[in-house]
Every structure is written in structure tokens, then in C-alpha cells.
UniProtKB/TrEMBL annotation:
Protein name: glycine--tRNA ligase
CDD domains for this protein: GlyRS-like_core (cd00774), GlyRS_anticodon (cd00858), WHEPGMRS_RNA (cd01200)
GO BP terms: mitochondrial glycyl-tRNA aminoacylation
Single GO cellular component term: mitochondrion
Catalysed reaction equations from the record: tRNA(Gly) + glycine + ATP = glycyl-tRNA(Gly) + AMP + diphosphate
Keywords per UniProt: Aminoacyl-tRNA synthetase, ATP-binding, Cytoplasm, Ligase, Nucleotide-binding, Protein biosynthesis, Transferase
Keyword GTP-binding: no
Subcellular locations according to the entry: Cytoplasm
Pfam families given in the database record: HGTP_anticodon, tRNA-synt_2b, WHEP-TRS
EC number: 6.1.1.14
Domain WHEP-TRS as annotated: residue spans: 59-116
């Protein structure tokens, strides 16, 4: 979840999953530059980069300094009395020119940081979209008559149909195409499962409270909003202060409760609504807790993601699949996160739909037989090297990205390509879609590579799909907790002698030394590569102890010789037993749908040009209703013909509505354009009708008995509008658009 803190890194926090221990971050200044570029990078790759925000701030500071110096010179000339009127006038004109230059520099900076007219236009567009969506009942706040509950929304009739169409296409594009095993697991999950995954311990956000009213806020949101507002609105912000705020934004995910609290106090951040002081930050678990059964003794949680149900069923799914790898399991379902302060409409909610895939693969062979099908795709990619160097996302060919190692392996690359095709076929604008690689401070220590499909909307770049190579972390965690080995087998044609690395931590000695942190030290030791383990073995044999970085603790610890045994052992094996790696694409369906709403929305003038009409340009694939049927006038003959057409459309499985209201045909067109209906059938005779295409407003004339066939071809993508326009005559008549 698509939509990223711990798994908080998935949808509606982000889209990654499970507890994500952090690796050591790169230098703060480097990450700050990367974060700033992520926020302000352009939507297309350009050959000539625009001036950076830092350069624009320096230019503004220089021009403001020049204005101040010239103003002082003018005052001196006037006060001295020795200057001629011509000299004073010339100095004043020079001051005016410098002020004009300073004003222009300020406007360029405003545009760069997203304030000013551009930001106002985005807000205006967003309001137009949201107002239309709520008025046409695509979605509305839940429990509206009781003033609603933040973070909960109801989908109305057209919204339900769009969502159903998106999910239907997801199943077709992924589950059917890849022969995936679809499962449906309960929303209520026993505590032991989520303890194994790490959610009980780490699925948290840091929260602060208004000390007088008790109102709760996410601590990182308050700090983030403060820094962004300063960067966007304070054009005279000193460069060193701007750098500091960028550094805070870059490292925000890694701040401890103490560091967050210190920054909140340093900047004087108070409760947004009351201006009251805030408490110190403290962790709040985002899962909804419940009890299973009447005694209350069996603790459960509403699942924060759907994936754990797939992992715990791996053994049975592997057997069902004939004990063959690779294979993928998929699940669509509701997930729940008790967000501290939900905002941004459908983008951050407390109950949402996830569609997740867990593709199990041999860790020693991550090639994919169908990678060639997507290798030539070219789209915006934002690898970590570009982020850290301050560059923008660039157009890259997927095949080249994999061959150069930018994308870790073919299977991960294959799913990145399939996600791109899925989103663009839904109607997401290719120019506002990019794939961003996780920075080092975002990556869990066990992850091989992670990419997010980010879509730009009025809120900025929004993570909608997470595509991660999570190695074998999840299956190993559940194997250890449950005692059931979740492994795969590769049988050899004849026995092989193999040399295996054996790491045996002494849990007793580690427990005495590290107490509550013992488990994290053990996991880090067991996760060592062969190279790391042999280097440790050499150090322990020569010195008796060595320093060891434990990423989950965020510090080095001292390991002594008695705490761990490391050896290479030779064995004869008849089969290889291993824990599969997992490639996980995770889709935040609500986020994708909201971005689709924005990307599909536009306005056009009515025929009289007295008003602007709203239109959603949904592709037929996702449109809530595929076509409308309009009798041109109230007439029994036309009504009967409309019923015949409606019956044929129903038989063909095409969603439609009949509109026989007395308003003009143009108004009826406009009304259905506003909910994104791609085709309108106008009955103006008993033998033939016109079919109108929504965006071009072009019409063709078709026989009544052919209507269902033509509309079916168009809605299922078998023919394009250009194709049918060549087959059937164009129509221009009195019932043409009157909007």
C-alpha cells in the first residue's frame, strides 16, 4: 500500500510493506537535495534544466541586495543636496529598474516552489474536480448526515462502477495474463501473525496532542507542513535556513521521537487550530485492534494490508501449483489503517482497497521469460542516482535500465513494465507518471530493490503502486514464528557436494549482552552475506571481537567470539531447499482512481460560450456507463426504438441508461459527459440512429440493428472511433450538439 512508513510505506502512508528497518542514510545535504528535487521535478524529461530553487533564491537575494544598495544611494543623493535633479532622477530610475528585476526574480522563485498563480490554479482545478465528483455521487463522505468521520468515504453509483471496472481490468491484466492464484483472506487477523510480520511492534506513526484540547496530530506532518510553507512562501528566507528546512524534509522519515520533538520546539510549532502548545511526540500503532471471540482473550487486528494472508498460505499454494516456481498469488481486499489525521480525500483514508501480488521466485534466478515483451517500453524513470545528484526524472528504456543494473533484475523490471501498461491503459497521463527508486534511507536492509509508481496530481507526486523485491524476509519471518518451514525444493538429478555458510548465533550470550535488542542482533547476524561473515570470522579469530553495524538499531555493536559461530561446511545434497524471494507489486486502488479522476477531467465552453461544461474523458474501459440512449423528442415510435436498442445493449453486456427527459438533446449530452459516458445513441428515426463520441462530439449514422455491435466494438477496444468513422457515414444535423 500502492500507497511508506513501516509498511506504513504502502498505501495511505505509502506503498511498501511491513516494518522497514533503515540503512544508514547518505550525507544529509545529498538527501536534502534529492528530496527537494523529488518535490519540484518537472513532469517531462527536458534537455535543458531550469534553474534550481537554490539558484533562484541566490538570484533573488542578490537583486534584493542591489535594490537596498541603490535605495541607500538615492537617499544619500537627496540628503547631500549637491546632486543635480537629473542625477537624482537617473538614480531613482535605476532603483525602479532594480525593483522590477527583483520582482521578476521573486515570481520565478514562486513558480519554482509551487506558490503563486500556479498553486492557485491547481487548487481551483482540484475544487472543480472534487465538487463534480461529490455532486454526481462518485464518492461522498461517509455518515454525512451525522457530520461524517474523517478518512471514511462512500462510493456512489458511478464511483462503484469505475472502481469495479478498474478491478476487473486489474484481474484481466495481471491475474489472467500471468495465471496467478487468487485468494481471498479474512480482514480480521490474529495478533500472532502480525507479530511475526512486525506490524504489532513497528506499524506506528509519531503523534502529538494539543495540550489543552487533546486533539491529535501526526508529528511529522506538522513539521513537514511548517518547512514546506516556509520554503514556498518566505521568498526572503536566507539560503542557510532554506538548506536546513530541506535537510529536515529529506531526513524526516528517519527522525526519532526525540529528534521530532526537538525540531517542533525549536521552530515554535503549535496546534494548527488553536495555537496551543503540543505534547512531546509518542508512537501510535495504526492498526485497529479487536478481539476474536466473546472472552476478549484472543487479540486480533483489522489487517493493515492483504499480503500476510498470502504469505501464511504459501505452503498450500506451493503444493497447489505442483511444487513449481515461479508462481504468483494475488488478492484484492479491504485494508484498514487508523490514520492519526486523514487528509487529501481518497489519498489518505482509514479503510481502503488494496490489490496485491506476491510473485515467488528462486533467489538465484530472477530472470523472466516474458521480459522481452516489455523491454522496449520507454517512460519516465527516477533512479536514486538522479535523485541524489539533483537531476529530474528521465525517459529510459526498461531493457536498458535492467541491463545496466539500475533495476535489480528482470522479474522486477517485468512487473514495472506491466504496471506502466496497466496505468496508462486506464487513462493515466504518461507525462505525469514516473517510476521512482527508493533512496538508501527508505530501503529496508533485506530489500534488494524498490520502485514506486508515482502519479502527479494537484497534491503533487503521489505514490500509487509499490513494486519491491523483498527478498525472502516475509517467508522467513513466518517460518521462524510458526515453526512451519515455508520453503521450496529443487531436486538434483544426482547428488552434489556443496559448501554452505553456517552462522550460529549464541542467543544466550547475545541476550545477556543486548537484552531486549537480542532479536534484532540475531537477525542481522543471520542475514550476513558470505563475504561479510568471513570477514567477521577473520576479525574474531585475530582480535576476539569486532564492530558490527545493526541497521535495525541504527548503530554499531561489539560482537565477541563467543557470541557467534561462523563456518563453511561441505555436504552432499540430493536437493536444494531454499526460501523463495518475493517480488511484490502493491496497488492502492483508491489513489489510482482519484488520480484518474483528475487526469480525465477538463472543461469546455457551451455552444453559447456563456458557461464552462465539465467533462470526464474516461476511456471506455473504465467509464461508469458505456453509452446513453436518447429519443430525440417525446414520441412513441422513438421510445419503442430506444427500448429495442436498450435490450440489445443489455444482451451484449453493455452498461447504459435511457434518458427521456424533456430537456434539450444538447443538455442531455452535457449531463452524461459530466459522468464520463463515452458514447451517446440518439434515436431520431425508426430505422437508424446517430452515435456520438464524447470528446470530439463527432457523430456517425448507424442502423438500429447494428448499434449494439458497434458500441461493443468501441467499448471493448476492438475498433477505434477512427475505424468506425470510416465504415459509417458522418452525421451533421439539427440534433447536433447544442451545449
Amino acid at each position: 500500500m500502492v500507497f511508506m512508513r513501516f509498511r506504513p510505506q504502502l498505501i495511505f502512508a505509502s506503498l511498501s510493506r511491513s516494518p522497514k528497518p533503515r540503512t544508514s542514510p547518505p550525507p544529509a545535504a545529498t538527501l536534502a537535495a534529492a528530496a527537494a528535487r523529488r518535490r519540484h521535478s518537472t513532469t517531462t524529461a527536458v534537455s535543458m534544466a531550469a534553474p534550481s530553487e537554490d539558484a533562484l533564491r541566490r538570484a533573488l537575494a542578490e537583486r534584493q541586495a542591489a535594490v537596498d544598495a541603490q535605495a541607500e544611494a538615492v537617499r544619500a543623493l537627496k540628503a547631500g543636496g549637491g546632486a543635480s535633479k537629473a542625477e537624482v532622477d537617473a538614480a531613482v530610475e535605476a532603483l525602479k529598474a532594480l525593483k522590477v528585476e527583483a520582482g521578476a526574480a521573486a515570481r520565478r522563485l514562486q513558480q519554482s516552489v509551487g506558490a503563486g498563480p500556479g498553486g492557485a490554479a491547481r487548487e481551483e482545478m482540484r475544487q472543480a474536480v472534487v465538487n463534480t465528483l461529490e455532486r454526481k455521487l462518485f464518492y461522498i463522505p461517509s455518515f454525512k448526515i451525522y457530520r461524517g468521520v474523517a478518512g471514511l468515504y462512500d462510493y456512489g453509483p458511478p464511483g462503484c462502477r469505475v472502481k469495479a471496472n478498474v478491478l476487473s481490468f486489474w484481474r484481466q491484466h495481471f491475474v489472467l495474463e500471468e495465471n496467478m492464484l487468487e485468494v481471498d483472506c479474512p480482514c480480521v487477523t490474529p495478533e500472532v501473525v502480525l507479530k511475526a510480520s512486525g506490524h504489532v511492534e513497528k506499524f506506528t506513526d509519531l503523534m502529538v496532542k494539543d495540550e489543552k484540547t487533546g486533539t491529535c496530530y501526526r508529528a511529522d506532518h506538522l513539521l513537514k507542513d511548517f518547512c514546506k510553507e516556509k520554503l514556498e512562501k518566505d521568498l526572503n528566507l536566507p539560503q542557510e535556513k532554506a538548506d536546513e528546512f530541506k535537510r529536515v524534509l529529506a531526513l524526516l522519515d528517519d527522525f526519532s521521537a526525540e529528534e521530532l520533538g526537538a525540531k517542533i520546539k525549536e521552530y515554535g510549532i503549535v496546534a494548527p487550530d488553536t495555537k496551543n502548545p503540543l505534547s512531546d511526540p509518542y508512537p501510535f500503532n495504526l492498526m485497529f485492534q479487536t478481539s476474536i471471540g466473546p472472552t476478549g482473550l484472543s487479540v486480533g487486528y483489522m489487517r493493515p494490508e492483504t499480503a500476510q494472508g498470502i504469505f501464511v498460505n504459501f505452503k498450500d499454494l506451493y503444493y497447489y501449483n505442483g511444487q513449481k516456481l515461479p508462481f504468483a498469488a494475488a488478492q484484492i481486499g479491504q485494508a484498514f489503517r487508523n490514520e492519526i489525521s486523514p487528509r487529501q480525500g481518497l489519498l489518505r483514508v482509514r479503510e481502503f482497497t488494496l490489490a496485491e501480488i506476491e510473485h515467488f521466485v528462486d533467489p538465484e534466478d530472477k530472470s523472466h521469460p516474458k521480459f522481452v515483451d516489455v523491454a522496449d517500453l520507454e517512460f519516465l524513470m527516477f533512479p536514486r542516482e538522479l535523485q541524489l545528484s539533483g537531476d529530474s526524472a528521465k525517459l529510459m528504456k526498461l531493457g536498458e535500465a535492467v541491463s545496466k543494473g539500475t533495476v535489480n533484475n528482470e522479474t522486477l523490471g517485468y512487473f514495472i513494465g506491466r504496471v506502466y501498461l496497466f496505468l496508462t491503459r486506464l487513462g493515466i497521463d504518461k507525462g505525469r507518471l514516473r517510476f521512482r527508486q527508493h533512496l538508501p534511507n527508505e530501503m529496508a536492509h533485506y530489500a534488494a530493490d524498490c520502485w514506486d509508481a508515482e502519479i502527479e496530481c494537484s497534491y503533487g507526486w503521489i505514490e500509487c503502486v509499490g513494486i519491491a523485491d523483498r527478498s525472502a524476509y516475509d517467508l522467513k519471518a513466518h517460518s521462524e514464528k510458526s515453526g512451519v518451514p515455508l520453503v521450496a525444493h529443487e531436486k538434483f538429478s544426482k547428488p552434489r557436494e556443496v559448501e554452505k555458510l553456517v552462522i550460529v548465533p549464541s542467543k544466550k550470550d547475545l541476550g545477556l549482552a543486548f537484552k531486549g535488542n537480542q532479536k534484532m542482533v540475531v537477525e542481522a547476524l543471520e542475514a550476513m552475506s558470505e563475504k561479510e561473515a568471513m570477514e567477521m570470522k577473520t576479525a574474531l579469530e585475530s582480535k576476539g571481537e569486532t564492530s558490527f553495524k545493526v541497521c535495525t538499531l541504527g548503530k554499531d555493536v561489539v560482537i565477541t567470539k563467543k557470541m557467534v559461530s561462523i563456518s563453511m561446511e561441505k555436504k552432499m545434497e540430493h536437493q536444494r531447499v531454499f526460501t523463495p524471494s518475493v517480488i511484490e507489486p502493491s496497488f492502492g486502488i483508491g489513489r489510482i482512481i482519484y488520480c484518474l479522476f483528475e487526469h480525465s477531467f477538463y472543461t469546455r465552453p457551451s455552444k453559447s460560450e456563456e458557461e464552462q461544461l465539465n467533462v470526464f474523458r474516461f476511456p471506455p474501459l473504465v467509464a461508469p456507463i458505456k453509452c446513453t440512449v436518447f429519443p430525440l423528442v417525446k414520441n412513441q415510435e422513438f421510445d419503442d426504438a430506444a427500448k429495442v436498442i436498450a435490450k440489445a445493449l443489455t444482451t451484449a453486456g453493455i452498461s447504459h441508461i435511457i434518458d427521456t427527459t424533456a430537456i434539450s438533446i444538447g443538455r442531455r449530452y452535457a449531463r452524461t459527459d459530466e459522468i464520463g459516458v463515452p458514447f451517446a445513441v440518439t434515436v431520431d428515426s425508426a430505422t437508424s440512429v446517430t452515435i456520438r463520441e464524447r470528446d470530439s462530439k463527432e457523430q456517425i449514422r448507424v442502423g438500429i440493428d447494428e448499434v449494439a455491435s458497434v458500441v461493443k466494438q468501441l467499448t471493448e477496444g476492438q475498433s477505434s472511433w477512427a475505424d468506425v468513422s470510416k465504415t459509417y457515414p458522418a452525421h451533421v444535423g439539427p440534433q447536433g450538439d447544442q451545449e
